[in-house]
Amino acid sequence: MATQRDIARTAGVSVAVVSAVLNGTTHTRMSEATRARVIQAMENLDYQPNQAARSLRLNRTGMIALILHKLDNPVYTHLLRGVYAAAAERGGTVLLGDAETMRSGSQFVTRLLSHGTVDGILIRDDRLYDDDVMAELRSHPKPILSLDYAQDHPWVSIDDCRAGEIATRFLLNLRHRRIVFIGGATGHAFRQRYLGYQQEMQQAGLEPAPHLATGFGEQAGADGLRQALQLPAAPTAVVVNNIMSAVGVLAAARDLGIAVPDQLSVVGIHDVGLMEHLRPAVTAVRMPMYELGRAGVHGLYELMAGRPCAGGIIANPEPELVVRDSATALADA
Amino acid sequence: MATQRDIARTAGVSVAVVSAVLNGTTHTRMSEATRARVIQAMENLDYQPNQAARSLRLNRTGMIALILHKLDNPVYTHLLRGVYAAAAERGGTVLLGDAETMRSGSQFVTRLLSHGTVDGILIRDDRLYDDDVMAELRSHPKPILSLDYAQDHPWVSIDDCRAGEIATRFLLNLRHRRIVFIGGATGHAFRQRYLGYQQEMQQAGLEPAPHLATGFGEQAGADGLRQALQLPAAPTAVVVNNIMSAVGVLAAARDLGIAVPDQLSVVGIHDVGLMEHLRPAVTAVRMPMYELGRAGVHGLYELMAGRPCAGGIIANPEPELVVRDSATALADA
DNA sequence: CTACGGTGAATTAACGATACGTCACCTAAG
DNA sequence: CTTAGGTGACGTATCGTTAATTCACCGTAG
Question: Where in the numbering of this chain does the HTH lacI-type domain appear (chains A, B) (predicted)?
């Protein structure tokens, strides 16, 4: 509860000096002895600056918002780490929200839109939010950076198309020909991955299968595999768009008596720790999520400083295949 | 960028009236016509209140902090929902942090400790944080509520001991006698669950096995199973303390050629969506995490209002066994 | 002896929102 | 006719911090 005025009184100086000590301001000078007295007083009274007053005065809060679609999606683990780390480097704090809280008129949106709450917004997969919410967000006076391709504001993204290519190419190299593509929800990223799959298939002179069960999560994977088995020619391999859908693919395969990888090879996009612990352990394309988080924060700080943000697709590191046990070579026909 | 003063000027009233319209203050009255003019002006100028100024004036931010140990732990999914929902009901916003960001001297802690950032703190498993951090937090002038048993400040908790009992009792009823208890990290909750296991074993006249592989996550489960097989008499059933460790138990069982549930029954504590999609699907004790979140928020608001928080263990709903495929009855010996 | 520059600090005006105290005006009761 | 009370609104201090401006003092050069 101690304020700068209390410090000033105890140290026998003015608040200006206290503020100057705190901020290392060169404008207001003081002797070393005075500075020491002030610091002593701050420690004695256990002084903690009032962020609200600072924010008001400086028109800057030191907080950025990070809005994700499903917070409990394990692919965000490293993204979060990257964002927190980069924000900490810049002296910032992160206000985390998820899609649940992003309904139009919700407390979270209202607060985000107010001045003096955050200095900028990092948003992932903005196509998943209400149009109303997005319109409101765009009217926000502070910068917004998308962690996904975006038409109408700055963005950085991982190379989703490349991930689709890598997974498909890997299966092609294992001599698979009947490869299907399963799962993924409606975001741009998910379509990009399918695009990568399509391109590789076509380049190999094969007909890409339609995008099956474009939903999200475990159930979409199970549904997708069942749908795939209805196709004229049963697939020998599957690219799973959303990694958690891979869990569903494995479960459905087990339920249907299909052995993985002997009768069906599975490759997931996005690697999470869980994949290592499934049986069979799932071969997956690791995406640079940590770096995406860092790049997002740094880009946002550029925008906040009034500079343009270069943005674009993160090229370093590239998506990388982590080979485990869920995919194997097809014997020659 | 429009402030109340801008609204006041445009509507031809004083800022006092604008504020009154905004807050529905009865103190400053106005005619319906005036109110309408003010509202019109607010819409025209796209007015958004400045939270920093409000916080400063009111000495209240409308934000509460929620600090969790591992944000990506799926057991938090429903806890988060409960917290967000209850906070929204109270008109509050949630600032989410995880243990990563809770190092002493970190940006997050510093900000949390400052005035004018949050009105209260909800913390889970506070034994997992640095002593330094906890000491700092406790010196925080705003209320802290633990979502876990705590000695030195208010708390609410789920019934961890009961969960251990339920899992163990279930296996005992299936005629299992050699039941081990695996995994769990160092928190109080984890010890309570082991206690529940111990009690049930002793009540059945059996010798409880030592608490194996008291770590966290998938690997702890795998390690625990391997350790269990070193015991003089191999177990026929396992209670898994942390649910994600169940994934590791299943993987190790597969690797060792042990069939689940035919040769080994597995019951997990804490139910998450993933369990339904593993093969075999994992029988687990569902804990009322959503309600824990709600109870935590409501308790915290009580504390913030200066009232005592009843706290204690959440009795309704009770932990509930969700029977799936990973446990089966033991044939009579 | 005076003017001047440098040092070390105090005063004060914002930042935007809120709520207390005040006030002008009008109506109706005494 | 006076006045109490109700209605509708204004002025302003305040929250804690920052930074621009101002100021007092002292040593030294002219």
Answer: 2-58
Taking the C-alpha atoms of residue A227 and residue B7, their distance in angstroms, rounded to an integer, is 59
Which of B61, B115, B222 lies closest to A48 in CB terms?
A: B115
Sheet architecture: strand order including A93-98? A93-98, A63-68, A120-123, A144-146
Instruction: Please give, rounded to a whole number of angstroms, the shortest distance from the CA of B277 to a CA of chain A.
Output: 6
CA atoms within 13 A on the CB side of A290: 8
C-alpha to C-alpha distance for B274 and A92, rounded to whole angstroms: 34
A172: exposed, middle or buried (Cβ count in 10 Å: 0-12, 13-18, 19+): middle
pTM, 2 dp? 0.91
Contact by Cβ (8 Å): B211, B186: no
CB atoms within 10 A of CB B280: 21
Three-state DSSP class for A149?
A: coil
Q: Where are the domains of chain A?
A: 4-49, 60-158+292-313, 160-288
Instruction: Please answer yes or no on whether A278 and B251 come within 8 Å at the CB atom.
Output: yes
Q: What is the CATH number of domain B4-49?
A: 1.10.260.40
Which of B101, B137, B244 is the mutation pick for testing A, counting most A CBs within 10 A?
B101
A60-158+292-313 shares the fold of A4-49 = no
pLDDT per 10-residue tile (average), chain B, 333 residues: 91 92 85 91 93 94 90 90 92 84 76 90 82 80 91 92 98 97 86 96 96 90 96 95 95 97 97 96 97 97 90 92 97 67
Chain B nearest CA to A313, separation (Å): 25
